[in-house]
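Appendix B. Raw example, untouched.
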Amino acid sequence: MDPLLPDPSLAFAPGHGASAPRPNGFEPLLGGALREKAVWVDEAVCIGCRYCSHVASHTFVVEPDWGRSRAIRQDGDSTELIQEAIDTCPVDCIHWVAYGALPELASQLAQQVIHPLGLPQPARLKRTLPRP
């Protein structure tokens, strides 16, 4: 065995990878630039047009049960591509927010009653964030 190559059996050893730090959103992303804000989709306002997921497919996905877009990765695409996806949104439901605001926004969204798209809606849902 070549002494310069790592031993492949180490990949299956107990505890392998346990010491790797967990991503927190503040590490350098996409070429070493720190992103100061996170992207958030206000799913209560989203109409499921899928524009954002077509433009920035590594960041946005359409949730299968509700038919609304959701940001699944903060480091999926470049800032410019995410901004292009935000600009294509016809209802302005995608926002840049502080990383620290994500848990509170998720909590607010969890308290709202959201119906799957395609079913009759009782009334227009309210935004969780004001328009920019």
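End of appendix B.
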